[in-house]
Amino acid sequence: MYTVKEGDTLGSIARENNVSYRDLARWNDIDDPNRIYPSQQLKLSKP
Questions:
Q1: How many Å separate Cα 45 from the centre of its chain?
Q2: Is the pLDDT of residue 18 over 90?
Q3: pLDDT (average), residues 13-41
Q4: Residue 46 in contact with residue 23, Cβ under 8 Å?
Q5: Is 42 within 8 Å of 24 (Cβ atoms)?
Q6: Whole-number Å distance between alpha carbons of 23 and 27
């Protein structure tokens, strides 16, 4: 799990964790990759 921090983007989180931002969005049911929020918890691997 990853906790989103102020200034994070889905792309930056994906790069830091060596995953595709598309996979990250799919695993976390994110329709709009531009809409993530500080304190949001994201799964970093396939559920």
A1: 10
A2: yes
A3: 96
A4: yes
A5: yes
A6: 6
Residue burial 7-35, b: 16+ Cβ < 10 Å; e: rest: ebebeebbeeeeeebeebbebbebeeeee
In a domain, residue 22? The reply is: yes
3-state DSSP helix/strand/coil % of the chain, to nearest 5: 30, 10, 60
Phi (first) and psi of residue 41, to 5 degrees = -95, 125
The residue segments making up the domain with residue 11 are 2-42
* CATH at 35: 3.10.350.10
Q: What angle do CA 21, 33, 36 make, to 5 degrees?
A: 110
